[in-house]
UniProtKB/TrEMBL annotation:
InterPro entries: PAP2/HPO, PAP2/HPO_sf
Domain Phosphatidic acid phosphatase type 2/haloperoxidase: 108-223
CDD domains, alphabetized: PAP2_like_2
Pfam families: PAP2
SUPFAM superfamilies hit by this protein: Acid phosphatase/Vanadium-dependent haloperoxidase (SSF48317)
Residues spanning the signal sequence: none
Identification of the protein by name: Phospholipid phosphatase
Record keyword Membrane present: yes
Record keywords: Membrane, Transmembrane, Transmembrane helix
Record field: transmembrane: 32-51, 76-101, 156-173, 180-199, 211-231
Coiled coil spans: none
Length: 236
């Protein structure tokens, strides 16, 4: 029998093919184009409801504000400290650090995916704020906040940044256990940051929901671009 086709050699090839298949499955997920468009539609609908100041939005905001608001000193101290994580300056520094780290790791596509997505999401948010021109709640703010209210910049920035971390965790972390733990942690950050913006009276709840929808839309559509331009070709 030809040595090229002996049993040990075939087993070795088979093991290699299985390894490559598993690696491929670990590093690629389904295209997120359709979910991205679904979130885009939800965001547009939500924005139109806010722009038209519908009774649903007024009722939604009042209900959530009544649930969240309180004068507990501990809650105030935690919320005013935690909300800083979503500041533009904080997320900008975090993005730069992550970008440089990915470059050093020679993950160039992921680095530019991160930077490009943060620039696009925050740039679009600035345009939307000045197009909608919704004023902030006319109550005492527990932290400083300027500019327009919809969508919440903290919610957009945190949903985008931590959404990127979720994507990178799925792509780069091999352990399913640590994938799950990290994804849960990253997902909690935008939720808590959005909560602080309502608690500190600087945003309406509908601003926060709009920010989450916008940030999630950018992450899903951005990943779809990464999938088609890089991942799908790399592991096809």
């Amino acid at each position: 029998m030809d040595n090229d086709y002996n049993l040990p050699h075939l087993l070795e090839i088979t093991r290699g093919e299985i390894f490559l298949k598993k690696k491929h499955n670990n590093l690629t997920i389904h295209d997120t184009l359709i979910p991205g468009f679904i979130f885009l539609i939800l965001y547009v609908i939500w924005a139109l409801l806010v722009i038209n100041q519908t009774s649903f939005i007024h009722s939604f905001d009042k209900t959530i504000i009544d649930l969240v608001s309180n004068n507990n000193a501990t809650n105030i101290a935690i919320a005013t400290k935690l909300t800083v994580i979503g500041n533009t300056s904080t997320l900008t520094v975090a993005t730069i650090v992550l970008f440089i780290g990915l470059l050093f790791a020679k993950k160039f596509a992921y680095a530019f995916f991160t930077a490009g997505l943060m620039i696009c999401a925050n740039g679009y948010n600035w345009i939307t704020k000045h197009a909608v021109e919704r004023h902030r709640p006319l109550v005492h703010h527990l932290v400083y906040a300027d500019g327009y209210s919809f969508p919440s910049g903290h919610s957009v920035g945190s949903a985008t940044f931590f959404g990127i971390l979720i994507v990178l965790t799925i792509l780069l972390v091999k352990s399913k256990f640590w994938q799950t733990i990290l994804i849960i942690i990253w997902a909690l950050f935008p939720l808590f940051i959005g909560y602080t913006r309502i608690f500190c009276h600087v945003h309406y709840p509908s601003d926060v929901v709009g920010g989450w929808l916008e940030g999630t839309t950018f992450v899903l559509l951005g990943f779809s671009v990464l999938y088609h331009l890089y991942l799908n070709k790399k592991y096809e």
